[in-house]
Amino acid sequence: MQVKMYCDGGSRGNPGVAGSGAVVYDASGETLGEIAYVVGKKSSNNVAEYHGLIQGLEASRSVGATRVDVFMDSKLVVEQMTGRWKIKHPDMQKLARQARDIASGFEKVTYTWVPRAKNKKADELSNVAMDAAARGDKPGIVKGTGVWAGASAPAASGASASGASASDASASVGPAVDKRDAAAHWAGHESPRTRFILLRHGQTHHSAERRFSGTSNPDLTDTGREQAKRAASALQGFGRIDTIVASPQARAQQTAEYAAEALGLSIATDDGLRELDFGDFEGLTRDEVIAKDAEAFATWQSSPNNAPPSGESLTAFHRRVTRARLKLQERYEGQTVLLVTHMTPVKSIVRQALGANADLFKHVFLDLASISVVDFYGDYGVVRCVNDVAHHR
User: Fold this and answer.
1) Active site residues
2) Which distant-in-sequence residues (6+ apart) come within 8 Å of 251 by Cβ?
3) How confident is the model at residue 146 (pLDDT cuts 50, 70, 90)?
4) Cα(290)–Cα(296) distance, rounded to whole angstroms?
5) Looking at the structure, do residues 136 and 229 belong to the same domain, yes or no?
6) Of 118, 147, 179, at which residue does a domain stop?
């Protein structure tokens, strides 16, 4: 019998309370059963996703399947299980070996990545399991789900491929360890990690001509759309992304649309992520501004407290973006958020994480459709990556 199995896993905090879900369908699309499984109280997204896979394979075996088509929204697990990506972390290797051991009992198992929008039922079940974990339920199948008598807990827990954390489910391996990620550990911070993946928009005719582009609203060029597509594809390898928030300006919204399609997410809009208002210098090149009003340009450049005529100072702009980031961090605490915005807002968030002064704006450059990554643990920031453009090579 051939079945389709959808599975998922997640954690609130990464590491945090974690659960997984799996649902099995027959060839006609009828549900054969579903399972929600509590992974633990301090586990990562990747660990939970592997638990979802293992539980789903166990469930498929229990209903008598001989061929299993696995569908997941975890690019990492799909690529690792197909052998296209290496598994470096030893605990993750254990989970993968366990999944492969179960899979070896079938005639054939295939693995396919799907956007989250097409994996809703498994996602719902993983949230049921996370709710149970938050209530204090121990690792295991959540009561009322798991119609397969043979489904059992994975034998060992693991850590994310990035070394983020390990599960605290059933079996313990070796001495107790600090399960915070490395940055939180060395800084001594207990607050959950909120990750911001920062994507600058693709090319517009303003950026192609090196014009100040703040309040104006140019669309992406054909080149800009290709850049956005490549960035969206690259983001699929960045692990679980929980939500997308974009600047309201057209170039950011259009770039975000490609990411939303690739990740299976919707787009929220935050006005605080708008680009700097260049006032009277809007739409002009640097040389045109100097020719128009060299004194005003020099005054603006002399201090972050000074604004272009009718525009916005860097100081006021930085306060605006900081307020936006703090609100987003509060709203999505413990999650990974893709922010699709502009060069200066990305610089501002990097500056916030570094605790740097306004000189940073002059000494960091961000290419079009580049990716940067910043983590916040409460008020403590860590910069993971700045101006990644490998996807454009």
Assistant:
1) 201, 275
2) 201, 202, 204, 217, 218, 219, 220, 224, 342
3) low
4) 8
5) no
6) 179
| 251 known member of a binding site | yes
Domain end call among 145, 179, 213 = 179
CATH for 169:
3.30.420.10
Same domain, 113 and 22: yes
**H or E element at residue 39:** strand 31-43
Q: In what order do the strands lie in the sheet with 371-377?
A: 267-269, 243-246, 336-341, 193-200, 371-377, 380-388
| Amino acid making up residue 59 | A
Number of domains in the chain: 2
Return the H-helix or E-strand segment holding 34. Answer: strand 31-43
| Measured distance CA(169)–CA(156) in Å, rounded | 8
Listed residue (193, 190, 196) closest to 374, CA to CA? 196
Predicted local confidence at residue 245, as pLDDT: 97
Domain of residue 115: give its range.
Answer: 2-179
Q: Which two tokens stand for residue 206?
A: 């303003």
CATH code (residue 215): 3.40.50.1240
* pLDDT, mean of residues 58-62: 87
Tens-place pLDDT, residues 88-120? 777 778 899 999 989 988 999 999 999 988 999
In the chain, how long is the greatest CA-to-CA distance?
79
Confidence tier at 225 by pLDDT (50, 70, 90): very high
Q: How far apart are CA 362 and CA 122, in angstroms?
A: 46
Strand 31-43 and strand 140-141: pairing?
antiparallel
User: How many residues in total does the chain contain?
Assistant: 393
In-domain check, residue 186 = no
The answer to whether 42 and 16 are in contact (CB under 8 A) is yes
CA distances from 228 to 235, 336, 374, 378 (A): 10, 20, 20, 31
Q: What is the pLDDT of residue 311?
A: 96
Contact partners, residue 58, CB within 8 Å, separation at least 6: 102, 148, 150, 151, 152
pLDDT for 231-266, tens place per residue?
999 998 888 899 999 999 999 999 999 999 999 899
Q: Which H/E stretch holds residue 96?
A: helix 90-103
How far apart (Å, rounded) are the C-alpha atoms in residues 217 and 210? 15
Q: What is the pTM of this model?
A: 0.59
